[in-house]
Amino acid sequence: MRSQNKTGLNGALAAGLVLLSVSGAAHSEVLDANISGDSVRIAVSGPLSRVFSTSKGEYDLGGLYGEGDDDEDLVTAHAGVLLTGDAGARQANVTAGLGARLQYIGGDRDKGAALELGGKVEVRVPGYERIGFTAYAWYGPEPASFGDIEDVYEYAAALDYELLRDASIYIGYRKLSADVDRPRDLEEDGVHGGIRLDF
Asked: 22-26, 111-115, 148-152 — which is least confidently predicted?
């Protein structure tokens, strides 16, 4: 068990270093990192035009390493694309995105992946732009899942405060659940705190 823990942690650290190098090599990227009592999550997003020269939207890469609700190691990694834009709210600054992503999920005994559909929303009220609310949700049903994973969903919401023009702190809640062929699912949930940096 200890060797599995070390392998998972090394993989998560390596993924984090790759994400940091990507964000440091380009502009207009967002580095999002958060921690809870049981997990650490790092993600990088940026203009999709870096991958497809004529596309609108953004890419999203990330991963999580932590301890699931049943005290087993949990590692995830995802890559996705979102079509983003102004949601059209007149009295507030609301941006939203819809898209798809592929997510790998691995525990001590079960491993697999799922193609997920979902989106995100960010709200900032005019006159109080330093305070914002963000939320996202993703769902991968059984027909689009692979390996030991039968279906998976993940959602999160956070309240942030912009300390600097390009740096925010936030507190939020996240739940990740992957259905596997045994009585207890692979799950991670709880309150987390994080930072969001624009490069």
From this structure: 22-26
**22-63: pLDDT as tens digits:** 444 445 899 999 999 999 999 999 998 877 776 789 999 999
Q: In Å, how far are 15, 50, 143 from 99, measured between CA atoms?
A: 23, 17, 18
Cα 77 to chain centroid, rounded: 9
Sign of the torsion formed by the C-alpha atoms of 120, 174, 45 and 76: negative
Element holding 10 (H helix, E strand): helix 2-25
Residue bearing the bigger pLDDT, 126 or 148: 148
pTM comes to 0.82
**Which residue's structure tokens are 């956070």?**
158
12: which 2 tokens?
């998560």
Task: Please give the Cα distance from 7 to 13 (Å, whole number).
Answer: 10
Lowest-confidence pick of 15-19, 89-93, 145-149, 150-154: 15-19
Residue 32, Cβ neighbours under 10 Å: how many? 21
Residue 87 buriedness (CB in 10 A; 0-12 / 13-18 / 19+): middle
Domains, the chain, ranges and CATH?
Answer: 2-198 (2.40.128)
By three-state DSSP, how is residue 77 classified? Answer: strand
Residue whose entry in the numeric block shows the structure tokens 């999160």 = 156
